Amino acid sequence: MEIKNRHSGNSSATSSLAACATANCAGKRSTKTSRIFAVAILATLFCSASAAAQDCAATAKAPWTWGAGGSRANAQLIITASTVGDDCHSAKATIKIHALDGRMIFAVSRPTAQVTTLADATNAIQMTKALQTWVDTTTCPVGGSDALPPWKRGKPAVEASGNTPFIATLSREAYLRHRTAAEPLLCFIQGAESVNALAVSPDGKFVTRIGSFALSH
After folding, report:
1. What was the pLDDT predicted at 30?
2. What are phi and psi of 156, to 5 degrees?
3. Of the four listed, 19, 20, 51, 206, which is most buried by Cβ atoms within 10 Å?
4. Rounded Cα distance, 128 and 60, in Å
5. Nearest CA to 171 among 157, 159, 183?
6. What does the pLDDT average to over 196-211?
C-alpha cells in the first residue's frame, strides 16, 4: 500500500507539473498573441491617422501664356495650387508661380475657409476642381497694368473707378511705374472679398504684387 501510495503521489505530482507547463505555454502563447494583436491595432491606427492627414490632399496646375509678339511672345509662367489638411474646411491652400526655368517667383498660403473659390469644397475631388478654378488666370477685371485706375498727385490712394475698386499695395511712384510699363496682370482670388493682382515683368522672370481688386457681390 505504501508503494502504491508513493507511486500515486509521484503520478499526481507529474501530472501537476505537466498541467502547469501546459498552462505556462498556453499563457505565453496568449501573451504573444495579445502583443501581436496590439501591434496590429497600433499599425492600423497609424495608417488610419496617416490617411486622415491626407483627406484633403489635392493639386491643380495651369500654364499662363501672354503676348502676341515681340519680347512677350509665348512668355509663360506655371501656376500650381495645392491643399493639405485633415479635412477640406480646415486645410491650408498654397498657390505658387514658377518661371519656365523652374524658379519659384511667388508663393502664398491661406486657409481654404478664407478663399471664396475653395471654401465650399468638402472632399479631395471637389477641392481639385476648386483649385483648377483658383489657378484660372481670367479673373483679372482689366487686361494690363496700363488699364489700372490713375493715382493723382496729392491723393492718398488710387482713384475709385467703375464697379471694381482697386487698392494699391505699393507707393505712388512704384504704382505709376508699373502702370506706365503696361505690364501683363496675373490675378487670383485671395480671400472672400478681393482678387490679388500681380504685375509680370516682360520677360516673365519676376512678378510684383501691386494691389487687389474688390470682388463685386
Report:
1. 53
2. -75, -15
3. 206
4. 6
5. 157
6. 90
- The identity of residue 160, as a single letter, is A
Q: CB within 8 A of 71, min separation 6: which ones?
A: 202, 203
Measured CA to CA, the distance from residue 185 to residue 137 in angstroms comes to 9
Q: Is the dihedral of CA 107, 147, 172, 160 positive or negative?
A: negative
121 and 160 Cβ atoms separated by less than 8 Å:
no
Alpha-carbon span 137 to 141, nearest angstrom = 11
pLDDT at residue 75 in the model: 65
Q: Is the dihedral of CA 118, 130, 64, 137 positive or negative?
A: negative
First to last CA, the chain: 108
Give pLDDT, residue 207.
Answer: 93
| Nearest C-alpha neighbor of 108 from the set 138, 79, 86, 148 | 79
Tell me the C-alpha distance between 1 and 4, whole Å: 5
Q: Give the predicted TM-score (pTM) of the model.
A: 0.69
**Do you know the residue count of the chain?**
217
All three cell numbers of 25, joined, read 505555454
Q: What is the Cα 206 distance to its own chain's centre?
A: 23
